[in-house]
Amino acid sequence: MENEIFTPLLEQFMSSPLVTWVKTFGPLAGGNGTNLEEYVALVDGVYLNEVMLQMYEKLWACGQLGISISV
Hints:
Blueprint: H1 2-14, H2 17-23, H3 35-43, H4 46-64
């Protein structure tokens, strides 16, 4: 019963625009994971922390070059 409800919601979430964008930074769960493994990789926060570090490094590099970025 729970699986019948959870699986479609998980698939819908994992195909959402935000998750699709986050996946552009690199593969989740080693690249060959199931939706559930990818979801767990997002929820534990380690992968999202790595994404934030990549964004910060690019922002820092732009600041060092004197390029202003308006947010």
